Queue: 2 jobs
Job 1
Amino acid sequence: MRAAVRRPLFLARLAGLIAAVVGALWLTLMAARAVEQPLVADLSKHLVAITTGFAGTDVLLFGATDGPGDVVLVVRGPDQPAVVRKKDKVAGLIWANTESVTFTGVPSFYKVASSRAFTDFMAESLRERHRIGTDNLDLRPADGSLATPAEVAAFREALVRLKTEAGLYLEREEGVRMLANRLFRSELYFPSNVPTGTYMVEVYLVRDGEVVSAEVTPLVISKVGIGAEIFHFAYRQSVLYGLAAILLAVAAGWIAGLIFRKT
């Protein structure tokens, strides 16, 4: 009887010992893999929820490197076409749109940050290869845009300026903080007018003038709540949404008329 009691206790202890050994081996393996990777990076959250009271938010990017080097961070929003219009005075009286250029493949949001000034560690050819910086964005006019190269350059400059003024484009040298033990961090601010979609957060480790490692992490920015439901209904059922808006306006006017008639 006493041997029967000891046997389950022995098996339980043996199972616990095996689990501890397996867990230790797993942690050792993961640590070895982390050491083998020159760059490891992640985000504090991978979903930014936009509600009716959304006024902008911060997302923390953090990571570590296996040795010395500089870190470059690039955040790209989903591509979309963009139309840039030029206004001139018509007949010397009124301002009107006279010329326009449509660009394709324009990032809806674009932010660059680095551990120090680009000119100190990264050649222009390397930045052009990885499309780092607004000057290296591949912004091309659509086939229907009949503009000269000089006009395209002027419209391109205006597009970048408008995006920057709206807070959607930002280049911030020394925006990545290098901490002790080869750790780094950077705070990504997304304004209230940030477009929805899937963003790509790219992190590069530059050493001796070359990119030795890179990490790409997706970030989803999406509308949630009643505002998202109304937005999707208006986009997918535009006719019904228009009719509902008209009926609501008529009902509001009728109720207001009854209230003021009684008063």
Job 2
Amino acid sequence: MSNTHNPTNLQSSRVTYLFIDGSYLRKSYIDTTSKWFGNEVEYDNISIDFNAVKNFFDARKVFYYDYIDRIQGKYENKTDIEARVSEQKDYFNQIRSLEEYHVKLGNLTKKGQKEAGILLTIDMMNHAIRNNMTKAVLLSGDKDFKPLVESLVNMGMIVYVSSEIRSTSSELKYAADSHIPLSFFDYYKWSSPELKNKYPMPKIETYKTPFLGRGLERFTALSDIKVGNKFGSIVKVSEPQNAELLDRGKVKDYEVKLFQKDREFILFFRKMEDGSTFQMTLNNQDRLELYYALESGKKIKWD
């Protein structure tokens, strides 16, 4: 593939622009986190830390595309619509106020949201043609963007698509140079400090090897982990001591034990293939199991 853009004109040899399909992000965020945060997340006023999103992708600039829903609901009157629209405008203005963020809004029709997608497409093409960026990241799972991604890739632009894997068009994913999968953990880290303080994630102790990264073993790259004691070439977490064994089970290729120690519940995982281990601790058993299910997509099967 020929590379037609000229990065020598840029201030840096690597300049990433992030383009966010706002309606996708809002829906995906709610679908992924609602079981953890409950009704604390609302469609028109989501507590996302957009600076954390920008930093995650190491983006120089961020372009956010969305719409204001002025369509009257079945049980809404004029006052209800005005209040809802006002809340949406406040939400978008909060994003606008962030440094290096640019918000563009389209119109919503009863046939669906199209205008914001057109604005996103035009902007990505313009920035690529003008050599403003060396890499474009599209945060969306919508297959309607496949022709855009294919065109940019054919121009020589490096294009990544980032999305939650279960809500991603395979056609869009494979059209890009690479796909950055988003999980519950990513959305949790993008949530507001208030939400994270109210609904803390478990404490995680895990092993690390030089060959394991976030894409191969999701729990080895969490930023909030504690690392266990070294055991040969593997950093190994030992089985809890002086704790009550409550249950045994299996998930994927791991044996799982549930312990309780004082007021804490501990899920201890041992991989059957190589004996590597990690554990998760929280003061609520149900939420501990829920966190693992949300992050891994698998439920533990107890004996």
